[in-house]
Amino acid sequence: MMAYKFAAIQATTKVEDVIWQAGRTGVLTPTAVLTPVRIYGVTVSRATLHNLDEIRRLGLKIGDTVILERAGDVIPKVVQVLPKLRTGSEKEIRVPRQCPMCSGGVEKVQGEVAYRCVNKNCYAVNLRRLAHWTSKNAMDIEGLGPKIIEQLYKEGLVRDASDFYKLTIDDLLPLERFAEKSADNLVKAISEKTQVELARFIYSLGIRHVGEESSLALAKYFGSLEKIKDASLDEINAIYDFGEIMAKSAYQWFHDKNNLQLLARLAAAGVKVKTLKLSAKSAKLAGKIFVLTGSLEKLTRDQAKAKIRELGGEISSSVSQNTDYVVAGAEPGSKLVKARRLGVKILNENEFFELIK
Known about the structure:
Largest sheet: 6 strands, antiparallel
Helix content: 25-40%
Number of helices: 14
CATH architecture of the largest domain: Beta Barrel
CATH superfamily of the largest domain: Nucleic acid-binding proteins
Number of domains: 4
Strand content: 15-25%
Order of helices and strands: EEEEHEEEEHHHHEHHHHHHEEHEEHEH
Radius of gyration: 23 Å
């Protein structure tokens, strides 16, 4: 199919199908399967559609010709349907009645646009939850990738995160891909990650709507896991940048009997959660709120965030009137546009480095 380019970052393509996948929280996410098209130097064959409301807003059907957009390293997205190119063979997109991963029931989440698999033993959900626990920005356990986790899960050796810490060399040796050295390395890698800072631990739990910055905000506000468990909904809602949905999700997680049992099993398995200790070397950026967009050449995104926090600053994931600075690297996204509209001060990479010296 010929691709018509728009403004160098857009192209037309066709939606051949829509597939639904269950994430680690059980929420079903629709993904458009596209006729492959080159855009921004990359061949794109899939794009997230987020949820059913987004599909309805676009008026999208299977078989539609659409305009696809990719800005920098941002995940490609469908921004417009071209209804005049329809042939009459297009099909409506419907939410599956059964989870495509486990065939469990699907229900709409009350008060939200999301649909969720209700099977607590959903294979895909459990695997993704476990993979999230071991991922780099979570517990960062080397050697525990998705394939190994699936192998452990299939063998019945791991059912929740606490089981990782009970694995022995003898458990691993009978498995494919494991010799004595590799089994020993994995057991050691797991044992080295039994002590974890509070913010990283919260993020590792995979609480719905609670990402890295929200996890850090929870840790800074309450200081310990016990205080978070004892916190009221109003107390959590009082945290800066916490919306009502995010606060409710965090509150419900820490008041769910099954989740509290998981925390107890993790503690019994030797996982120790350290109280967050911020060692701000200076108060130079105290009270200042930063948003990062685009890629930096001299620092990774995580290094830039760490430097801002070290100097007393705060990180936000979205631009608002409360934002003090937007740091714009190469190929920035829509956050830069919003910053200009709100009159927020924008720093390029060199200006940012001058500020944090």
